[in-house]
Amino acid sequence: MSQKPSEHLLAALEKIVGPKGALRPGPDQAPYLKEWRDKFQGATPLILRPASTLELSEILKLTYEADVAVVPQGGNTGLVGGQIPHPGGDEILISLDRMTHIRAVDTDNNTLTVDGGVILAEVQKVATDHNRFFPLSLASEGSARIGGLLSTNAGGTNVLRYGNAREQVLGLEVVLPDGTIWEGLRGLRKDNTGYDLKDLFIGAEGTLGIITGAVLKLQARPRDHAAALVGLRSPADAIALLAQARAAFDQALTGFELMSRRGLEFVIASFDDARDPLAAPHDWYVLLELSSTDQPGTLSPRLERFLADVLQEGLIADAALAASDQQRRDFWDLRERFSEAQKPFGGSIKHDISLPASKIAEFLERANDLVAKACPGIRPVPFGHLGDGNLHYNLTQPEDMDKQAYLDQWPQISRIVHDLVSEMGGSISAEHGLGQLKRDEIKRYKSEIEMDLMRRIKQAFDPKGLMNPGKVV
Amino acid sequence: MSQKPSEHLLAALEKIVGPKGALRPGPDQAPYLKEWRDKFQGATPLILRPASTLELSEILKLTYEADVAVVPQGGNTGLVGGQIPHPGGDEILISLDRMTHIRAVDTDNNTLTVDGGVILAEVQKVATDHNRFFPLSLASEGSARIGGLLSTNAGGTNVLRYGNAREQVLGLEVVLPDGTIWEGLRGLRKDNTGYDLKDLFIGAEGTLGIITGAVLKLQARPRDHAAALVGLRSPADAIALLAQARAAFDQALTGFELMSRRGLEFVIASFDDARDPLAAPHDWYVLLELSSTDQPGTLSPRLERFLADVLQEGLIADAALAASDQQRRDFWDLRERFSEAQKPFGGSIKHDISLPASKIAEFLERANDLVAKACPGIRPVPFGHLGDGNLHYNLTQPEDMDKQAYLDQWPQISRIVHDLVSEMGGSISAEHGLGQLKRDEIKRYKSEIEMDLMRRIKQAFDPKGLMNPGKVV
Known about the structure:
2 copies of one chain form a homodimer.
Chain A: H1 7-17, E1 22-23, H2 30-33, E2 47-48, H3 53-65, E3 70-73, E4 92-95, E5 102-106, E6 111-115, H4 120-129, E7 132-133, H5 146-151, H6 159-162, E8 169-175, E9 181-184, H7 197-201, E10 210-217, E11 219-220, E12 224-232, H8 235-249, E13 253-260, H9 261-270, E14 284-292, H10 299-313, E15 318-321, H11 325-336, H12 338-341, E16 348-349, E17 352-354, H13 360-374, E18 379-385, E19 390-396, H14 403-407, H15 410-423, H16 442-445, H17 448-461
Parallel strand pairs in A: 2-4, 3-4
Antiparallel strand pairs in A: 1-2, 5-6, 6-10, 7-11, 8-9, 8-10, 12-14, 12-15, 13-14, 13-18, 16-19, 17-19, 18-19
Helix pairs in contact in A: 1-3, 13-15
């Protein structure tokens, strides 16, 4: 059982990091204690901002000895409250925001070694500066930090081609709950010498240790891109199109995003510069993107031929090929505005789910039916990374309903959606993790055997339960 | 502490699998008890060949209750003795060779669900039958089984483009040491709902549980290939060529194999139909292969232009482009005959190591010096998957030395090589695992912290130490 930290301990911890690295309660603490969607608000007697792995190690030696709990935090962009301490105010918050060194660039090995506090956009920039590409990319890349991104196994827009955050990592440095440092910063593509510790820390949301360093894989820099906005009749047709696009383009297929007509209409209504991309309206749209290291201009003609073929087959109803990089970005803007465009239309109940691609059409049909029965007039706005089987199944409120009355139904509606996802072999948290938000809910869907294995790992790595307690497991 | 199985237990175990599924000591046991390189010979009172996951679960419930140890085995193609019971004869051997069902093919989700005992070549065939591609490929694919391949995180010839066995898996079914079944057969590309159990079982060499089923990822089937045999001056030039080929071809680069002149001469001397591929001899060779889903005939001209450029730059000395699929296979034959071609030249001390690509040139120089000092006249024959940083650093004996006297030096020579690998941030087992062979040696190279974490996992999953004891950790 963790203890309330004594004033003596707090003073000793402050001494480790110096005055720049410690924040007592007050306005300076505010940005660290609130999650940006406003779902979680925490409290802490002390925020520590160590400048090095060694400082962090010293911190955890003391907290471990004193049985005091800690909460690690990267860029505070998580969506499930994993990075926010509990309101009780007994947990020390440890921010990585001063551990921002690029430790090494190895272009022959295509690796980059960084501190856990480096911001994702900075990693992308360093890769580009060395004529390489770091593919992890998501909306919060300007503030999300590598340690947090790995601890949550972040997804984003490039998963189809490059995989999740997990796939971008060759090695890790982790400070364990008792302050010992696991030095696993290997730059190896093959290493079969025992259990895969790295992948255990990745996605553990800081409950097994704190990721302070990582060896990241760099990729060849794409030189050519092509994109099209495709109109279709149904999600089933979109899945068939995905299969054909995979067979034709393989790893050059870097984006395959599904959008519903209603969502597109919300975007067009919400943004002055948004235009209907095709002459006639269609029930469904796919944004299809190709990228490769080929000569610029190689992919667009290939995509054009492909689209002509599937149009002739009747698999798609219409398509617009991006004629320029600007038009390609415009297509992405449509897609990226989907979340924000829902705001003017009232409350939105959101789900971050995944399914086998083969189940998505059936899921959408059944889910739309079920939620309409539970809340007549509800407006589903599904969209997402269809190529990864990942849907943001967002549900906008009925037109004439009170927003709060609608949002009050979140638990019941989510229960319906998650039960169906689980029945169909899907996941109730595709990208965002469990954190505080889904920690209890997951028990409904995971077998007792799996929960037990997870608890055994937690017990093995953090026997005192001091590392981000009350999160995940 | 595990116990000797009683006759009563043996009879009960036999009853679970029926007469076809049980082998008592005798000639029928022989193929299961000997590793093919003849390094390990085991003994067991009973070999069990369950026909289903439920039978295996029943078996482990009984062995767990009786504190009896078990050794799981796939196709018995492992090279480090992980699948061979100890000679003491107290361990029950469990073979997966009757669990050979293809459970499901899902072409829309690009997945294949199989029993743990399915042979790799069969998986490849099913994929091809459905116009898909399963990329895991290695010399023993005609007998290696999926459960064993995943338990050892097998590598092979397609790692550069598709990753190790680990990367081919979306979900697992595992029978735990006490017989409970973990049903983790998910077909999801994104699922952030807790600790990554799957990757813990993959590569654990059957010490945490027995993999009885897997959801495997299928890939688009390549239609176009191109290959070249390139002559170069040095491994450093080969690394520079690798960087340029990556930038030019990205994921279309599917093979990048390094070969030394001496090895090539061994092949030419050992095989009647092997020819020197280039007009003049070169100190080093690279076999470079491209594959893609493009129209057949697209890649060869691209490769030709690339080679012309690097020839003009002076980075390579000569190159032969494969003019046909037959010639491409001939190039691969040269490479694949490297191991066998060493036999007529006497004893060979072998290493399966990996390093960051950026360190390989330096490693070869230093290692060759060190082993020549330890054993004058020793003949290094390094070759391997340079694109993965994986070298088979094989050392043929001096010309005029007694074979056994040379092989007796294996421990000293390997110590020199592995110490250098470790110093340079490499791995002493890139592909093959630890098993019995390297279980003690790894303690010299892994930190006590890492060994401790591995032991904690073993303790958490297999508290009685009954699951493949004396392997890995």
